[in-house]
Amino acid sequence: MSTGTGAGTDTDTGTGDRGTGPAGARLARRWTTWVPVAAVLVMAAGWGRDLPGPVVAVAGLCLIGSVLSAVHHAEVVAHRVGEPFGSLVLAVAVTVIEVGLIVMLMADGGDKASTYARDTVFAAVMITTNGIVGLSLLVATLRRRVAVFNAEGSGGALATVITLAAMTLVLPSFTTGRPGPEFTGTQLAFAAVASLCLYGIFVAVQTVRHRDYFLPVARDGVGTGDDEHAPSPTRRETWWSLGLLVLALVAVVGNAKLVSPAIEDGVESAGLPKAVVGVVIALMVLLPETLAAARAARRDRVQTSLNLAYGSAIASIGLTVPAIALASVWLSGPLVLGLGPLHLALLTLTAAVSALTVVPGRATLLQGGVHLVLFAAFVFLSFSP
């Protein structure tokens, strides 16, 4: 197992594949700089207005461009700070912005938005633990037949995900303090504090106490990336990319907010369940992590992919639930967090399959396929419950 933490040896991403020479690198820097700026301008121009179809389409294009830009700048930052800090940067940044989006949707939606937080958080858990993990294992095993990762780090992260999900999404369906799948105020406060504590412990273990558990695993002493010897970005380039990463993520969520009314209208006109809105929002917001995880898996850095997947799930619950609990003080309407029987069954199946995947520290194409089928089942049943 690799244990070094140098900028050129333990990062999942770098500058080696962002172009074919200086011209390619300059082109990447140009478009990844102006796309987030343009996307933020579109967001500011359309904020709070009823937008016609063409403007919504432009916002959608800005959303896609911002996602790709966010992945680029996250990779630059990750290459500079090393693993597992690089994975943590993108996971926390996206989740913080995701919280803002959920709060905005709940503030605008009133009583009909009472399940937005639950639907989005549960969708994030299913996307990360099945979609991102399955895609990463598929990409890695298609190239090298067997994906290798650290069972200690991934197992601990998975245990944290399962505990957080059970405590915040399962228990409300069984508590009796309030009718329906809701926490009482005291119960919600306890769940929020416990979630924050678990998240803090996980970050401390991942980045300090047992950092080596979350580093990419080398095969027989051989490096695990095409770009491991790429030159590290300068401090100035890193800070510049960090600022543009935040700007790109703001643009992602802001433009997602612009297109969300069209999504809600489309869902309503098609007669689909309201939970579909949460699924679509989570898919858009988690797209940067998905692309970054797939690219890491392509370089045989599966541990980095799992760090992104499970770290995003932990951040999504551990930061979102406390923020929503705090926001519920001034938001009107109920806060429904408990899952229904269908989603409880999917979560239970996901927990069991994920445990069987991470315990050996090795996975094949079969495990990737199983997770992707579970993800497909979640998406299909969200549209057709």
Automatic annotation (TrEMBL):
Residues 1-25 are annotated as: Disordered. Residues 56-207, 240-383 form the Sodium/calcium exchanger membrane region domain. It is a multi-pass membrane protein. InterPro entries: Alkaline_pH_Ca-Antiporter (IPR052946), NaCa_Exmemb (IPR004837). It comes from Streptomyces lavendofoliae. GO terms for molecular function: potassium:proton antiporter activity; sodium:proton antiporter activity. Pfam families: Na_Ca_ex (PF01699). The chain crosses the membrane at residues 31-48, 54-73, 85-106, 121-142, 154-174, 186-205, 239-263, 275-296, 308-331, 337-358, 365-383. The keyword Membrane applies. Keywords: Membrane, Transmembrane, Transmembrane helix. One of its GO terms (cellular component) is plasma membrane. It is found in: Membrane. Residues 1-14 have a biased composition (Low complexity). This is Ionic transporter y4hA. Its main location: membrane.
